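Here's my example:
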Amino acid sequence: LGWKFYDADDYHSLENKKKMAEGIPLNDEDRIPWLCTLHDILRRKDSSREDAILACSALKKMYRHILVSGASAIQSSQPVQPEGNTALKILFVHLDGPIDVIAGRLEKRRGHFMAPELLKSQFDTLEPPSAPENFITVSLEKSLPEIVLEIERAIFQG
């Protein structure tokens, strides 16, 4: 697509990386400043009228609200509508797959700070996207070209 790509893992604090390397799951307090930083990055891209892709484990609905609206989403329990003046328009792509498939991929990953045993805690924390969130769900059991095509279709058709 020629869009700037951001890996959210690059923006974790040293403390968060250390916790994950030690097999300690992150909590909301750990994640909120990180998510606000990611929102700020997306806000700058939006202000410049540039599209971007962010790879991020936005596991909870609240985390996705922070990505859309920034710190103001923390105070509000109400869903933030993308049509609002301050909210970003984000298409969330929920890459869905069985834990054993994802665990197999994690085992092949080298040099990453997240301990593979944290995968279960991520599944336990996961709140899959639902209406009125702007999202698509794509199966990780499809081939990479099929996954990319499905995401591109969603971007350009809707």
